[in-house]
Amino acid sequence: MATLILLRHGQSTYNQENRFTGWVDVDLTPTGYEEAEKAGKLLKEAGLTPDIVLTSVLKRCIYTTDTVLRVLDRSWVPVEKSWRLNERHYGGLSGLNKAETAERFGPEQVKIWRRSYDVQPPRTSDEDHQRLMADPRYKDLRSTDVPYTEALADVLVRVMPYWETRIEPLLQDEQVVLVSAHGNSLRAMVKFLESIPDDEIVGYEIANGEPIVYELDQDNKVISKTVL
After folding, report:
1. What is the reported pTM?
2. Where does substrate bind (predicted)?
């Protein structure tokens, strides 16, 4: 039996400011660090200690990971970072205030951009795309790998190769795997794990700093799920 722990990072500065974050690299708030510390304590109380942590290349997840491992006194545990675990790319909405965006485009349109499974927000500019391509984290990727915008469906397509080549083999070795990532990259995994229909995943929420623990069988099928 394998154990998979999914953890969304603590509150970020853009979460606090009600902004679309996506691939924008922002820090945690003081509350976010507290949420990460609480997550570590919950895992410790449950007797769950990861053998390896997989996270994104964005610092709100990296700092959450560091805090959790410090609380668990397991800062020596291997941590691997992948762009495939990044948050959904919000395209031209990135950095915009959600309330102000709703005033500009209408709340119904913004709801579609935010919550629909396969409708992408407006694309980011060519300049912003080139800026991402020049970032040291992404400069070795193909241009087609760095998105202009994404729907949740696109995030699932991005995450699945990493699931199949990295996460599944670790689980088959019966390691305790902690995936410290973002709301949408984790929602993509949950959709896959629980076979959630497209029209139902749009209403599925993952709270900041709240560990979700799956026990999986030898075929990586869900045996049980616990939210700490």
Report:
1. 0.95
2. 8-15, 21-22, 60, 87-90, 98, 114-115, 183-184
